[in-house]
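=== RUN LOG ===
request id: a7f3
mode: sequence -> structure
chains: 1
length: 264
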Amino acid sequence: MKKILTSLAIASALSLTVVPASYADVVSYETPEDTTSPSITAIEFNQSTVNAGDTIRIYLTATDDLSGVLDVSFALRSPSGQIVTPTHENPVQQDAQGRFYADVPFSPYAEGGTWNVVQAVAVDNNFNAQEYLYGTNSPYTFQVLSSTPDTTFATLVGVELSKTVVPVTLEESFLIYIDATDNLSGVKSVRFTVNDPNGNTIQWSGTLQQDEAGRYFGYVGFPPGGPTGTYTISTITIQDNALNEHEYQPAPTPSPRSPSKTTH
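=== RESULT ===
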């Protein structure tokens, strides 16, 4: 229970008179706590059929009874059963009607057939979250028309580090280089995670950049005060331009990077 004392101020062109606090009104109120998760009430598409190479817009209507909706996300299932999460790379926005939406581009090599929204998540401003799992019988479907589909995962070729793994001082960082190829649509994104000696994930990389040789690279960092021991690149996730995504787990053991190669 919080109390606010309000005082009456009377202003004139030359002076300001403040009524003593004893004359002030006492206003009492309670701040309600938001413990209820938001709800997703509708999922819609701007078209029922999209050609490979074009973009579809997916709308989600979400409501929250108190603090308001902070964010939504969703995952798609391809006809062959692959799960892709387009909201990782395509930011969710709101339209004039308050609907959340994301534009999902499809590669010219996208898999043709029936795609569906297999999962959706809404989070409110008090960080209450609600997940919806629609499964293989999801009612939220659309068609992709494709004449040259790419349904093969990209290939992880190799992993290198800019320095030897041991010893490394905590709070120090170094570069990881990842080679990946795709035989048709090409590699779209590469990400990795790092586990500490206790098996806890301490780093989730964003989408890596490419160097002049076409390798994907990013920094591996260590938290101050973390445990000493062997840290591992625990997973490497590669997505191609047809939205085929594969997580390599555990990731292959990195090799020290040769000093003769260019570093960043």
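=== NOTES ===
Residues 61 and 99 are 5 Å apart (CA to CA).
DSSP finds no helices and 23 strands in the chain.
=== END ===
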